[in-house]
Amino acid sequence: KRILVLHGPNLNLLGVREPGVYGSTTLEGINSALSALARELEVELKTLQSNSEGALVDAIQEAMGDCQGILINPAAYTHTSVAIRDAVAATALPTVEVHLSNIHAREAFRTHSYLAPIAVGQICGFGPESYLLGLRALVSVLEK
Ligand code: DQA
Question: Which branch of life, at top level (predicted)?
C-alpha cells in the first residue's frame, strides 16, 4: 500500500520555528521516523512539503489511483482552505489529519478545521508522535 504524506506551509521551518510550540524536531527528523515506521508496517510513503496551497491540491489530486490513503498536516491551511478539503473529498481516499500542537488548546481561530469533518479522524497535541500515531491509525483503517 502507498500513502501520501503531506506537510503544509511553514513546516519546512520545524526545529527553528517557535520551538516552544512545535518543539525542536526538524521535518527531516519527522520524515525519517515516518519512514522507519512505514517499513515496520510494510507500507510505502510518498512525501511532500509545500508552502503553496495549489501544490498541495495538485498532490492530493495526483494521489487518485496512485495512493490508498492520505496523512496530512495542512498547517495553517487547516483553518482556511476549502480547496484542500474539496480535493481530499474528490479523491475519496481515507485521510487522517495530524497536528503537532493541540489546536484546541490555542487561539480560537485554530480550533476550526475545514478538513476534520471529511477526515477519518484528527490526531493533535503529541508533537512529532502525532504523525506516527496518525500513520498507525491510517494503516489500521486500510487493513480493515
Ligand atoms: C499546526 C497547527 C496550525 O494551527 C499551524 O498553523 C501550523 C502547525 C500543527 O502542526 O500544530 O502551522 O498544523
Answer: Bacteria
